[in-house]
Design brief:
Largest sheet: 8 strands, mixed
Oligomer: single chain
Distance between the termini: 18 Å
Number of strands: 11
Bound molecules: zinc ion
Number of helices: 2
């Protein structure tokens, strides 16, 4: 992927206290239908782009919430303590990557998931793109 539009992008939380800039192209783009992502986002699925951790520059004080994934990895969710927006997610299994919640990206019109994961948990009326491959569990 070498699209210049995605090689540098910015974002912020609802109240603006947390801002970020990403200087690298997303390595993975995906939506996750699992229960944890639904709870965390309040939506019918979680949507993420994963970037190199070192390419992400954040300003503002975030808070983090840690929980265990079904595979026993520690998942860390970073959120704004003022407005509650979920910003980032990291997985202890892949410390070099950080997931950005697509909804906090300023212009995410380029977002195109490569995969739906945990499709076995999909709510019956969640809209999905039939051209995107769906996996019952985790893809990576
Ligand atoms: Zn905020
Ligand atoms: Zn999930």
């Amino acid at each position: 992927m070498t699209d210049p539009e995605t090689s540098k992008f910015t974002g912020h939380c609802l109240c603006g206290s947390i801002r970020f800039e990403c200087n690298a192209e997303p390595e993975v783009q995906a939506c996750c239908h699992c229960d944890d992502c639904r709870r965390a986002t309040g939506g019918v699925y979680g949507s993420f782009v994963f970037v190199a951790t070192k390419a992400l520059h954040v300003t503002g004080e975030m808070r983090a919430y840690e929980h265990q994934s079904d595979r026993g990895n520690t998942m860390t969710k970073d959120f704004c303590p003022m407005c509650g927006s979920h910003m980032f997610e990291s997985n202890s299994k892949s410390p070099k990557l950080r997931g950005i919640f697509v909804g906090v990206i300023d212009d995410a019109s380029w977002f195109k998931p490569q995969a739906y994961v945990y499709a076995s948990k999909k709510l019956p009326h969640t809209p999905v793109d039939p051209e995107v491959e769906a996996f019952d569990k985790m893809r990576w």
